[in-house]
Amino acid sequence: MALIVQKFGGTSVGTVERIEQVAEKVKKFRDGGDDIVVVVSAMSGETNRLIDLAKQISEQPVPRELDVMVSTGEQVTIALLAMALIKRGVPAVSYTGNQVRILTDSAHTKARILQIDAQRIQRDIKAGRVVVVAGFQGVDEKGNITTLGRGGSDTTGVALAAALKADECQIYTDVDGVYTTDPRVVAKAQRLDKITFEEMLEMASLGSKVLQIRAVEFAGKYSVPLRVLHSFQEGPGTLITLDEEESMEQPIISGIAFNRDEAKLTIRGVPDTPGVAFKILGPISAANVEVDMIVQNVAHDNTTDFTFTVHRNDYNNALQVLQGIAAEMGAREVIGDTNIAKVSIVGVGMRSHAGVASRMFEALAKENINIQMISTSEIKVSVVIEEKYLELAVRALHTAFELDAPAGNTAE
Ligand code: ASP
Ligand code: MG
């Protein structure tokens, strides 16, 4: 008999019919002998609808009051699901974050979970009840309602699984697992049976939006086995685990991630002296702009070029700051480029294999795709290329690293 935390996202509880379907599913597990704690999101579109209401009152709603309001979305779904379970003869009880006591800090709209009181839930489980908990919300020390940021129900699920020492945290959603890459770009993308937390973090932070990043971090930190599954289709989903042992048999690369959200900035002809990187990036970070890739060229004539990437939303801001720095330093010029994309190959298998990067560069060269920047880590190689070649690059790499599904075995 296992204790399982099951989290259902907004589309899975988007209508009353779907809530009834979720109840059927939960009942099946429980009839099989498992103890179940369910975490639900608000009905799909509801959180957006609520935020929009607030914006009609004020462009910048007071965060405390915004949390009071958006937390109601989940309060509706927990009650509906509990009703649907009870109707089926399954004893169930719903709790808001405050009632469980999911204690968070006071950072409204992006609060962090500090502690969860598992006792109340454990008592209910012992009494044979299915416990339905509102995702996305908590309460601070002073009793104010808080929320965890968009997509925060994933984090609620994982945090509850950790607090209850659950055997597995299952995230039910509208895809049947984590894929080798976005199936909309590569039709031959395949569902992965398994992926490590480290890989999942890279895939998620690079734009595979199946799971909230914080939830993955949390699960890794507390070793909570996490599984992504389709809400209404049968299947094993993708298990996200700590163990790397089987990676020997696995391909060197687990997936290909990409991101169109970055922009590139270059400052040319800066003096090649100590402290230059700091003089450039200090003011950038002081302007609250996060920098991703950084490249400094080898110097000629005692001057050098310095290039870095930022989020596209920060581009104008960063450009302005950089122009100021350039004038101060007597740099030659500042060049910006927003038509770039980042493509990364990700896999714990590359740790033990040489030549992974060169195989990547070879595949891109064959397609005549120019690489503008490169960065590497233990389990990732990323390149910046011109945005218009993004899809071609992803497809070429997917094939080069033997990730293509055999014919007939695709997402469709
Ligand atoms: N309802 C919240 C949102 O839409 C939390 C969640 O769905 O995970 O962001
Ligand atoms: Mg979600």
UniProtKB/TrEMBL annotation:
Record NCBIfam families: asp_kin_monofn, asp_kinases, PRK06635.1-2, PRK06635.1-4
Catalytic class of the enzyme: transferase
Family: Belongs to the aspartokinase family.
Annotated ATP binding sites: 7-10, 173-174, 179, 184, 209-210
EC code(s) of this entry: 2.7.2.4
Pathway: Amino-acid biosynthesis; L-lysine biosynthesis via DAP pathway; (S)-tetrahydrodipicolinate from L-aspartate: step 1/4; Amino-acid biosynthesis; L-methionine biosynthesis via de novo pathway; L-homoserine from L-aspartate: step 1/3; Amino-acid biosynthesis; L-threonine biosynthesis; L-threonine from L-aspartate: step 1/5
PANTHER family in alphabetical order: ASPARTATE KINASE (PTHR21499), ASPARTOKINASE (PTHR21499:SF3)
GO BP annotation list: homoserine biosynthetic process; lysine biosynthetic process via diaminopimelate; threonine biosynthetic process
Catalytic activity, reaction form: L-aspartate + ATP = 4-phospho-L-aspartate + ADP
Record-linked InterPro entries: AceGlu_kinase-like_sf, ACT-like_dom_sf, ACT_Aspartokinase, ACT_dom, AKii-LysC-BS, Asp/Glu/Uridylate_kinase, Asp_kin_monofn, Asp_kinase
SUPFAM superfamilies hit by this protein: ACT-like, Carbamate kinase-like
Record's protein name: Aspartokinase
All residue ranges annotated as the ACT domain in the record: 265-348
Keyword terms of this UniProt record: Amino-acid biosynthesis, ATP-binding, Kinase, Lysine biosynthesis, Nucleotide-binding, Transferase
Binding site for substrate: 47, 74
GO-annotated molecular function: aspartate kinase activity; ATP binding
Record CDD domains: AAK_AKii-LysC-BS (cd04261), ACT_AK-LysC-DapG-like_2 (cd04923), ACT_AKii-LysC-BS-like_1 (cd04913)
Listed GO CC annotations: cytosol
